[in-house]
Design goal:
alpha/beta
């Protein structure tokens, strides 16, 4: 059972101040938030950003979370700002500063809560085309899907999302409303109570 904070607790936008903190040069921000675990394939995202940076100089990667050791192991200092051990309550504000939030890969058996956290903030998302991600979508354009493990495809998807900024933002806001309604803590609690009531009635 996956639940998010209620909508009024989720986002305190920091806009320009957070963007300047993450990249003083004012480039478009592509970000990942997580533990930098191997199954998340952040190395693929780093490779994708190198490809993208070879074509355009207006983008910058932000990796939020994990340990300094995991961040250094990625060797991403040439394309990324690395922020380790960020307090959980700061995460929504940092996500809100991103132009694109990315989940490079995930496992095939669990629901990727990271996608819900990105979506609840209203940021355009690029994520792998795998069943757990597709199951979260209400409309085909909610998330830009890409083949997992393919840096070139990921770079293309990120670039397309950046170039279609207005459309991507509109789709992200629509998806945010859906996610906040379906997965808020109050909604999921009510669903759980209804299920328990039903089970008790048929016991």
């Amino acid at each position: 059972l996956h639940a998010l904070q209620d909508a009024h607790d989720l986002v305190v936008p920091c806009a320009l101040s957070c963007s300047a903190q993450l990249d003083p040069q004012g480039r478009r921000l592509v970000g990942f938030v997580g533990s930098l675990a191997s199954y998340q394939r952040v190395d693929v995202l780093v490779d994708a950003m190198r490809l993208l940076r070879s074509e355009r100089d207006d983008v910058h990667l932000v990796l939020i979370g994990g340990t300094p050791e995991r961040a250094r192991a990625l060797g991403a200092e040439d394309v990324a700002t690395l922020l380790s051990h960020v307090p959980y309550e700061e995460i929504p504000r940092l996500i809100s500063a991103l132009d694109v939030a990315v989940l490079p890969d995930s496992n095939w058996y669990g629901s990727p809560v990271k996608v819900l956290e990105y979506a609840a903030v209203g940021v355009p998302i690029v994520a792998p085309r795998i069943p757990p991600v597709e199951d979260l979508m209400s409309e085909p354009g909610d998330i830009r899907l890409v083949a997992p493990g393919d840096p070139e495809a990921l770079a293309t998807a990120i670039g397309q999302t950046l170039d279609a900024e207005q459309d991507a933002r509109q789709r992200a806001e629509a998806f945010a409303e859906t996610v906040r309604g379906r997965f808020s803590r109050s909604t999921r609690t009510a669903q759980l109570l209804d299920l328990m009531t039903l089970l008790v009635a048929h016991a």
